[in-house]
């Protein structure tokens, strides 16, 4: 892990190569679950966006509320003056669509049991209790609330100056309208209350000093409000060509045959979607109930890597570098973050108190991935396609390591003063999932705020969501009489 401004890479190193090396070091390795987590499966690092936060940060298994003291924060002459956090909701239930596919798969197993003896894994899964119901439909689970409460406790411990009790009433909290995000914001605030008032039950969020979170889907679900994205990607049957092609490609077909043999059902009764939902059921049972279900025994690590790639293909083409509009649709959110930072700089320069020391924004994996792509992170030399799985084994774009449940991207603004001179400056540090994220322009762990703004000048000045998301006008002419 890179530490401190003194560890910036030499200028002679090509910026792109240095950033790639830093990111690979920080996020490219698989996190092996610790022995204190017996329910965890060897498949755990490969669940993509269904990955548990503790599989990215396994040290949390030992102590889930101790603040992370790594990263090294700037020297004592620098004081944090504002924190802007973009947080994905915590662990959730499967969607109704996924639950219905699981029922379909269990129906296949029950219809093709291996005779009256009903032995083997297929028979065991045919009888395995299916406890998911349609009403759950992606809602936050208790484990997800715990994810948020514990994250709040860790951040409050890591940045005590910003999360002082007297700042609680000045919190700015924004959330997506989805229940899992609204509930995540409430659980986070409850965690802060617990930090301030140990042992006292928290009041309703509406009765807290900071007031209830504000719903703002134009910020947190910008993709729903971008007509170009909706038309060219979301509703475009060909936009996910590589996802569909990979489903019928040799890697997935090998898994299909292997799973059919393992479950003792005709291969024609299975498809890539059912295989994927079986894989995700292993992840849901682990994340929600903390159990290693028999669904995990259907797959080995080689299968898991292929299924992770299938999930990453979807995220890449629908939310990341696959199409330019995926990331450009997040410009307004990016600009909103820097407007907060600008306001804090201006207030500090006028010797005024910072009006909002902590800004918390709760969204989705689909909120974070486009923004990180807009900023240039986790971009591989070659695009992910249906045909280069083997070449992408060591790719940087692994969605489970970037946006697991409760993932968070944090901007910290520091005011720095030199005791020997009247010089003052503002610096910025970024954290992804509580680890230092090397800055794209310098690969250092901290940089001058003006340098960061200069690097992203195009986005801050030239990216207008209304223009980016406007569909191109087509002039229709005809030569016919």
From TrEMBL:
Its main location: membrane. Pfam families: His_Phos_2. GO terms for cellular component: endoplasmic reticulum lumen; extracellular space; plasma membrane. Keywords: Cell membrane, Disulfide bond, Glycoprotein, Hydrolase, Membrane, Signal. Gene3D superfamilies: Phosphoglycerate mutase-like (3.40.50.1240). InterPro entries: His_Pase_clade-2, His_PPase_superfam, Histidine_acid_Pase_euk. It catalyses: 1D-myo-inositol 1,2,5,6-tetrakisphosphate + H2O = 1D-myo-inositol 1,2,6-trisphosphate + phosphate; 1D-myo-inositol 1,2,3,6-tetrakisphosphate + H2O = 1D-myo-inositol 1,2,3-trisphosphate + phosphate; 1D-myo-inositol 2,3-bisphosphate + H2O = 1D-myo-inositol 2-phosphate + phosphate; 1D-myo-inositol hexakisphosphate + H2O = 1D-myo-inositol 1,2,4,5,6-pentakisphosphate + phosphate. Belongs to the histidine acid phosphatase family. MINPP1 subfamily. This is Multiple inositol polyphosphate phosphatase 1.
